[in-house]
Amino acid sequence: MTVLHLADEGEAADLAAFLSRLLHYDRGAAVRLQAHGTALAVFGRPPSFEVLAVRAVRLAKPYESGLDVTLDVTVSAGELLESVDEPAATAAVPGAVTGPPWAGVLPPRGGWRPEPGLPAPDALRALVSAAVAEFRSRTGELAPEKRTRAELDRIGREIWSRTVGDTGLPVRAVHAAQSLGFLRPADTAGNGPALVSSGAWLRLRTPYGSVALRRAGTGTLGLSVR
After folding, report:
1. CA 95 to CA 31: how far, in whole Å?
2. Structure confidence by residue, pLDDT tens digits, 161-212
3. Residue 57 parent element (H or E)
4. Closest CA to 124 of 205, 201, 202
5. How far is CA 111 from CA 39, 86, 198, 199, in A?
């Protein structure tokens, strides 16, 4: 069995929290793990938000059981969560599963450049709160016979597809970042969220994780298959 030695208990707790949030939205969630040396990237896709979520995890040392260069595997998020031992700061990698389609198309590793216009973290959180309140208000005003799944989805798409200012970043991406625990107040060094792009991809990056999505109207160009 492949064992991951995480940098400390905090890294183990953050990994467990990220997996728990993914499982909240999809009990059968899968995650793709990519590691090289002492850096591990965990990719997931909460279906409600239509974005890729990425959590970087620091490892204390490279993994065991003969994998001494790289690790790249798609596994059950639930099984990985069950294996996390926070006091020991370890996690056992479960057996591979057949990956969902998104697992074969990941954002590029490099080439990211800053994009202007992203509001401050407090403004981003306020934007999400306002969108949630609007959704509840508009759906609450529907007559019972009009309160259908199709109508609820239509209202949701209208609200969450709006962009943040002129950035091109949909509000649903900010909502995803907040729901997954990425959109916290800036750390003690003052590091906050940043918006970056690479080819067809946009990425909202924070010290606690990031969400990435392909910009609308890009067709099948710019895919990065790993």
Report:
1. 12
2. 999 998 999 999 999 999 999 988 765 555 789 999 999 999 999 999 999 9
3. strand 52-61
4. 205
5. 19, 34, 6, 8
SS3 9: helix
Structure tokens at 44: 């997931």
Q: Is 53 exposed, middle or buried (0-12, 13-18, 19+ CB in 10 A)?
A: buried
Report the pLDDT value the prediction gives residue 31, as an integer from 0 to 100.
97
Q: How far is CA 93 from CA 64, 71, 75, 90, 111, in A?
A: 10, 10, 8, 10, 30
Q: Note the pLDDT of residue 15.
A: 97
DSSP symbol at 170 = B
Rounded Cα gap, residues 198 and 203, in angstroms: 8
Bridge partners of 201, per DSSP, are 198, 214
Q: Judge contact between 164 and 127, C-beta under 8 A.
A: yes
